[in-house]
């Protein structure tokens, strides 16, 4: 399975890459929305995208909306990763097309639960 981590923090990208890699994902990374779109076009079919709420270049809502308008990404699981978002932000992300959200700080067990709920199983 393939995953893309779109996160502005180097440390958080590293943590997410390690957790997902340990679960068998081939993980790509981007630190802003524009680069993430480029990476996705190169990767092809991607199973999971974890999106930081605070993105540069293209904000998270625009990024999610763009993905959902491309039929190539219809089955992709998009998960927002945010630190203390308000209900308005969470609602906006879900309306834009995110499947779920992950609140920072999180544990690897919480990621496992979200992946299982999304139907993304690993070995």
What layout of secondary structure does this protein have?
Layout (H helix, E strand, L loop, with lengths): L1 E5 L3 H13 L3 E5 L2 H11 L4 E5 L7 H9 L8 E7 L3 H10 L3 E5 L3 H10 L6
Parallel strand pairs: 1-2, 1-3, 3-4, 4-5
Helix pairs in contact: 2-3
Determine the N-to-C terminus distance.
11 Å
CATH C-level category: Alpha Beta
Structural class by helix and strand composition: alpha/beta
Poorly predicted tracts of residues: none
Helix content: 40-55%
Tally of distinct domains? 1
What is Rg? 13 Å
CATH superfamily: Response regulator
Strand order of the largest sheet: 2-1-3-4-5
The third-level CATH topology is Rossmann fold
Order of helices and strands: EHEHEHEHEH
Shape: globular
Number of helices: 5
What's the story with the biggest beta sheet? Answer: 5 strands, parallel
CATH architecture annotation name: 3-Layer(aba) Sandwich
């Amino acid at each position: 399975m393939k995953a893309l981590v779109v996160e502005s923090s180097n440390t958080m990208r590293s943590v997410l890459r390690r957790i997902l890699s340990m679960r068998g994902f081939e993980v790509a990374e981007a630190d802003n929305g524009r680069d993430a779109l480029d990476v996705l076009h190169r990767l092809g079919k991607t199973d999971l995208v974890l999106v930081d709420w605070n993105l540069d270049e293209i904000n998270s809502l625009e990024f999610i909306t763009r993905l959902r308008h491309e039929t190539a990404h219809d089955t992709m699981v998009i998960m927002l990763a945010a630190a203390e978002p308000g209900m308005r932000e969470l609602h906006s992300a879900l309306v834009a097309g995110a499947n779920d959200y992950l609140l920072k700080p999180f544990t690897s067990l919480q990621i496992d639960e979200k992946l299982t709920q999304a139907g993304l199983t690993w070995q």
